[in-house]
Design brief:
Blueprint: E1 8-11, H1 13-16, H2 22-34, E2 44-46, H3 71-81, E3 85-91, H4 107-117, E4 121-125, H5 135-147, E5 154-158, E6 176-178, H6 187-197, E7 209-211, H7 232-244, E8 249-251, H8 260-266, H9 269-275, E9 284-288, E10 292-299, E11 303-310, E12 319-324, E13 337-342, E14 348-352, E15 355-360, E16 364-373
Parallel strand pairs: 1-2, 1-8, 2-3, 3-4, 4-5, 5-6, 6-7
Antiparallel strand pairs: 9-10, 10-11, 11-16, 12-15, 13-14, 13-16
Helix pairs in contact: 4-5, 6-7, 7-8, 7-9
Bound molecules: alpha-D-galactopyranose.
């Protein structure tokens, strides 16, 4: 099955936009392997917009020979030789957002071309889509085309959340669907995306996931969407949100120049384990005050995780929040004991009954994994 778990990878857009070429993509693939990103699950190396010539030739999209002199097949072969997968970009309109050819009217031809090159993932954008055309059908068509191309290709739909794609994209064959407009490198942007999607996750599961956009972790105000930057603590919170919510984890920073703090966030084992958990169960919201959110997510092995995200930038105070195990499906007064572990640090937070209090400061979060202790363990 394609996209059994949320996709993990890297995409060129957030940092490089039109400044892409085959050396950058190959170097990034090398880094994914050499610096251990592959070992923790990052697999897809995705070229976003701006890779093609502005005009089709003989009806075909042509990689810009100045940027990709060896061609896409050779690049795909290189990426595959590293044990990674290759992603490319097109658009449901006739012209992409940055002004390159889109696939409107060429869906089956382009999918066949991508399959011949060895593409494993197709991001499919929404710019310049004719008002007169039917968008559900356009995504369905580009879902069918790769399915008939002779190659397994993850279909990553991107219509920026217009007309609530969580209601229809899975049935139109998308493996992931972008649910919001573009992310920017600041706290306002990622907290707004979080707020807008927090109750929009019930459809997440094997085969199709809500894509909350590429990660800004480690961008540090550099690159195309680098608008302000965040602290490392804020980047960690952003990564934790995306991981907990079951979003694809697609790195957007320049990993060739990433510092240790960035690498540690992107490779956090506890958060990746929650995102890639075998049950792939979507989270639910327990409480939403608009300032802080408590959420829970069933994990494999009879465990359940809870998360508290305090995104109240107006107030100074630390929230002292009670978590009742009853709200995690574990009856109070049942005598059941629960072993609690901090997901980010791995710290053992002890054994509790009925519930616990957690302090979470402004723009801070906590994610804990709960394990019911019964006779068997
Ligand atoms: C849109 C998408 C972005 C990126 C650009 C490329 O804005 O939402 O993620 O792909 O187009 O032009």
């Amino acid at each position: 099955m394609l996209c059994e778990k949320p996709i993990m990878g890297w995409n060129s857009w957030n940092t490089f936009a039109e400044n892409i070429n085959e050396d950058l993509i190959k170097k990034t693939a090398d880094i994914i392997v050499e610096r251990g990103y592959k070992d923790v699950g990052y697999e897809y190396v995705i070229i976003d917009d701006c890779w093609a010539l502005k005009q089709r030739e003989n009806g075909k999209m042509v990689p810009n020979p100045e940027l990709f002199p060896s061609g896409m097949k050779a690049l795909a072969d290189y990426i595959h030789s590293k044990g990674l997968k290759f992603g490319i970009y097109s658009c449901a309109g006739a012209i992409t957002c940055a002004g390159y050819p889109g696939s409107f009217g060429y869906e089956f031809e382009d999918a066949k071309q991508f399959a011949e090159w060895g593409v494993d993932y197709l991001k499919y954008d929404f710019c310049n889509f004719p008002l007169s055309a039917n968008k559900e059908n356009a995504y369905l068509t580009m879902a069918m085309a790769p399915r008939n191309s002779g190659r397994d290709i993850v279909f990553a739909a991107c219509n920026w959340g217009e007309e609530n794609p969580s209601q229809w994209m899975r049935s139109r064959g998308a493996h992931t669907y972008r649910s919001t407009g573009d992310i920017f490198d600041n706290t306002k942007s990622f907290t707004e995306i979080f707020r807008s999607q927090v109750s929009n996750l019930n459809g997440n599961g094997p085969g199709c996931y809500n894509d909350m956009d590429m990660l800004i972790v480690g961008m540090k105000n550099k690159g195309h969407v680098g608008l302000g930057g965040c602290s490392d603590e804020e980047y960690l919170m952003h990564f934790a949100m995306w991981a907990f919510m079951g979003s694809p984890l697609i790195i957007g920073c320049d990993i060739g120049n990433a510092d240790k703090a960035t690498e540690d966030i992107l490779k956090n084992p506890g958060l990746i384990a929650i995102n890639q958990d075998d049950e792939c169960c979507p989270p639910f919201v327990m409480k939403n005050t608009g300032m802080y959110y408590t959420m829970a997510k069933i994990l494999s092995g009879g465990r359940i995780a809870f998360a508290i995200f305090n995104i109240d930038e107006q107030n100074e105070w630390v929230q002292n929040i009670s978590v009742l195990f009853e709200d995690l499906g574990i009856r109070s007064n049942s005598g059941l004991k629960v072993k609690v572990t901090d997901a980010v640090t791995g710290e053992d937070l002890g054994i509790h009954e009925d519930g616990m209090w957690i302090n979470v400061g402004v723009m801070k979060f906590r994610i804990c994994v709960c394990e019911v202790i019964n006779e068997k363990n």
